[in-house]
Design the sequence.
């Protein structure tokens, strides 16, 4: 069964829930900021420790991504974490998606929330969350 809901604030709750239960975590955002990474890093570290496959991709479009935030996402002690930077060469790069899978279930979040504190907590954002349970 698939459940779909609209979340317009505090999407952090669903993201943390996804991270805490997922065996695979895929995050794709147009930019990352230190404020957003600070919110998620403790949960990502725990997921990495339990062996979750973590892949994060962000971009350099408009130079919003903060180098400090990228550094914070590097987990040198874990081979199961991969971070990539999309080099836009001036081409618009504006995706925002979070995918969490566990067993045969999963959660997909797509919308307007980049990886920043305001986008994940108090900002005006629209995100569709789809849960698939078998």
Sequence:
């Amino acid at each position: 069964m698939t459940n779909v809901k609209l979340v317009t604030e505090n999407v952090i709750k669903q993201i943390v829930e996804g991270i805490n239960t997922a065996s695979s975590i895929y995050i794709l955002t147009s930019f990352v900021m230190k404020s957003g990474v600070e919110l998620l890093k403790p949960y990502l570290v725990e997921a990495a420790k339990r062996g979750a496959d973590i892949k994060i991709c962000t971009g350099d479009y408009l130079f919003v991504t903060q180098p400090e935030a990228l550094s914070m996402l590097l987990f040198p002690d874990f081979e199961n974490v991969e971070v990539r930077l999309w080099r836009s060469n001036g081409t618009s790069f504006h995706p925002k998606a979070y995918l969490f899978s566990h067993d045969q279930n999963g959660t997909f979040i797509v919308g307007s929330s980049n990886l920043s504190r305001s986008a994940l907590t108090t900002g005006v954002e629209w995100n569709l969350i789809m849960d698939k349970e078998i």
In short: The mean pLDDT is 93. The chain has one domain: 2-132. The beta strands are 2-7, 24-29, 53-59, 81-86, 96-102, 105-111, 127-132. The two ends are 6 Å apart (CA to CA).
